[in-house]
Design a protein that fits this description.
The protein is built from 6 helices and 23 strands. The protein has 398 residues and is mainly beta. Strands 1, 3, 4, 6, 11, 12, 13 and 15 form an 8-stranded antiparallel β-sheet that branches.
């Protein structure tokens, strides 16, 4: 676990389900003969020597060949269309007084009585696992339930407790969005541990350790929690935004603006961890009208970018080209002119870096951006190492 040993979000599968050494899985689009208008109009301008001259030789070698190859249209990496699945009911209620509505994956689910009510208890067979809630297919809406955690490790072995709920999950347990609680951390005398009371992960590509190291304080927070007590939990999901509410509060304990998972819908699953008992009761699912977004947004083009940070507001223009999952380009604006850009694309999700200078200060800085492209707009989180952190938005120039 983060502060006591290995912690994971998924029961780590073997074979084809295994996380490939923690690497991000990037989509590999299929090229088509169609010529993107950006190739015929914008890229000749980008390939002009006046733009390319300040860029390193490596980037220059990329830009022109990529300009000739780039023809990836929106959705060219999408799966072949299939018959539409039936729409889920507007609302679903699962009392969880027994395990009949659950399919176990790496856990044992049992009907028990706990703290005065009938409930389901999960105990992990290995390190962690799921109990999938049969009949759920969730995209947008609200999930409500009660959770409790009881630690079973011997005295002297620190366990903060791990009990959670997954959504938009694949039923082979290979991918999911996951919120989980660490109630033991809530009572710690160490403020750093207290700040790790609730956690978001997107498995398998974005486990807790990657999110914490790359984006400190963004995907976890403090919350008032207690071991061995029922905790009312509500999760609201709309498009790429999810909010976690606890103990009936009107204010969310954690907001994730930019869910990182590959799937926009999937199953709901209860989640438990080794060395403890996780209890669940009174699950209620309200399915809402889906937000009008789809994956595979095209990143190639010229973008006007605004960075609203804790150190001020900054802006610039970014020109990008894409070949398969690789992005290259140029940033010009605050942090310097004609800065080489590199990054990755996966089904519309982008991770981008470029160097530059901080205004009125000597030395170089590195800027990192991560977020989603949706049509002609994009947004996400951005940081300049050691200088600023905040959110970025972008609009495609026509």
């Amino acid at each position: 676990m983060d502060d006591l040993g290995p912690e994971i979000g998924l029961a780590r599968p073997s074979g084809p389900q295994a996380r490939a050494n923690g690497a991000v899985r990037m989509g590999i689009p299929r090229f088509t003969p169609a010529i993107d208008p950006f190739v015929t109009k914008s890229l000749p301008e980008l390939a002009d020597p006046s733009y390319i001259w300040p860029v390193t030789k490596t980037i220059r070698m990329w830009l022109v060949p990529v300009a000739l190859l780039l023809s990836a249209a929106h959705g060219d990496s999408a799966q072949e269309p299939s018959a539409a699945a039936p729409a889920p009911p507007a609302s679903q209620v699962f009392a969880l007084t027994d395990a009949k509505d659950l399919s176990e994956a790496g856990v044992k689910a049992e009907a028990v009585e706990y703290k005065g009510r009938k409930a389901v208890r999960l105990t992990a067979i290995g390190e962690a696992g799921f109990a999938f809630v049969n009949g759920t297919q969730f995209r947008d809406g609200t999930i409500e339930l009660d959770m409790a955690t009881h630690i079973t490790t011997p005295p002297g072995v620190r366990r903060p407790g791990f009990t959670g709920l997954a959504f938009r999950a694949r039923t082979d347990a290979s991918h999911c969005e996951l919120f989980y609680l660490r109630p033991g951390n809530s009572r710690s005398e160490d403020q750093a541990m207290r700040n790790h009371s609730v956690q978001y992960t997107s498995e398998p590509a974005y486990p807790w350790e990657r999110l914490r190291r790359q984006w400190p304080f963004i995907y976890e927070s403090y919350a008032e929690l207690q071991l061995d007590e029922w905790i009312p939990v509500k999760i609201e999901v709309h498009g790429r935004v999810a909010k976690l509410y606890l103990n009936g509060s009107a204010n969310p304990a954690l907001i994730v603006d930019g869910l990182k998972g590959e799937d926009l819908e999937g199953a709901i699953a209860l989640w438990g961890y080794a060395g403890e008992e996780s209890y669940f009761s009174n699950l209620r699912v309200t399915n809402a009208k889906p937000e009008p977004i789809e994956n595979n947004g095209e990143a190639a083009g010229t973008w006007d970018v605004t960075f609203a940070s804790d150190a001020g507001r900054y802006s610039g223009t970014m020109k990008l080209v894409r070949q398969n999952s690789t992005l290259v380009g140029i940033w010009s604006g605050d942090f310097g002119p004609d800065q080489p850009v590199s990054g990755n694309w996966r089904d519309g999700y982008v991770e981008i870096q470029f160097g530059g200078t901080w205004p009125e200060q000597a030395g170089t800085v590195t800027a990192t951006m991560a977020g989603w492209v949706d049509g002609d707009s994009a947004k996400g989180r951005m940081k300049v190492e050691g200088r600023a952190d905040g959110r970025w938005t972008a609009v495609r120039k026509k």
